[in-house]
Amino acid sequence: MGVMTRWLDPDEQRTWRAFLTASRALMDALDRELQRDAGMPHAYYEILVRLSEAPDRPLRMSELAELTGSSRSRLSHAAARLEASGWIRREDCPTDRRGQIAVLTDTGFATLAAAAPGHVEGVRRHLFDALSPAQVDQLRRISETLAEHLTDSGPN
Amino acid sequence: MGVMTRWLDPDEQRTWRAFLTASRALMDALDRELQRDAGMPHAYYEILVRLSEAPDRPLRMSELAELTGSSRSRLSHAAARLEASGWIRREDCPTDRRGQIAVLTDTGFATLAAAAPGHVEGVRRHLFDALSPAQVDQLRRISETLAEHLTDSGPN
DNA sequence: CCGATTTTGTTGAGCGTTCAACTATCGGCG
DNA sequence: CGCCGATAGTTGAACGCTCAACAAAATCGG
Q1: The pTM is what?
Q2: B58, B91 in Cβ contact below 8 A?
Q3: What is the ipTM of this complex?
Q4: For a Cys staple, B25 with which of A34, A150, B54, B140, CB 3.0–4.6 Å?
Q5: Distance (Å) from the alpha carbon of A94 to chain B's nearest alpha carbon
Q6: Per-residue pLDDT at A156
């Protein structure tokens, strides 16, 4: 306390607000499209994607939570709902009796396959189409830097 | 239909995932900090900020919704809660009997003033400290481009 | 080997957002 | 004027997320 706050200068203000506006609008748009076309929020789509990418090696709940950047609680609730929809299955982990393993069902895979083209199209339209190749590269570097920075001094 | 999906190439994949991870982590961190330190989500903080910036000219609900990038419904619910907390007041608009005007209360202003330094510090720590000045500039341009692009073909 | 600690995953309550439906008012056009 | 479509804002239900509390199993330390 007593330490003077270093307020944002006008440029930083502008950057911060633009980032807020853009990322919120982007996420909202994708979420809305995915909800409309596939009946699931973006977070659930991501879970299915991760599961589809590890078809042989089944994923532990924790691992899946880490991959999707969600809390255990969030994933647990999500898994319950995804299981109720018949898109995933949960099995006991053979090597750790506390563990649960998530598996994509055939129905889940089919649903994902049906949703993917439209979603990718959305990402392209809303993000990549608007940026120059150089900007895409810049965005990648910035995002990777931020992600690293945030996971270091991260969730606390 | 019948049109081949243009999937993301590996670079785009990487960019998209990094962006997802970073922006989610950033928002989650700021939201958590603001909830902990000021007892409000980031969305509500933004509403108070916008109100504090128009101390004389009171803001219509719609205008406020536009400024904060939220739906009318969202703002309406938020306003109800902010009013219950005693941070804002809603008054009838003199020129349009459908309209409502949102006003920041003294308590609301005090709460905002108390929350601001910590929040700004968070934005600095999590975002600006991690990036070079050049990257901040790039991020501004990218975000402004995206924001414009999204609000054009936008909410549909 | 046993107790303490940590890790894994789930649960329920509370909250914020979405979506669709609804009321009330405004603005324009015949 | 009187009607009709647009606009402003609210409401309630459904849903997803957060947080804290919890149960069960693994791991650590003596």
Answers
A1: 0.94
A2: yes
A3: 0.93
A4: A150
A5: 31
A6: 41
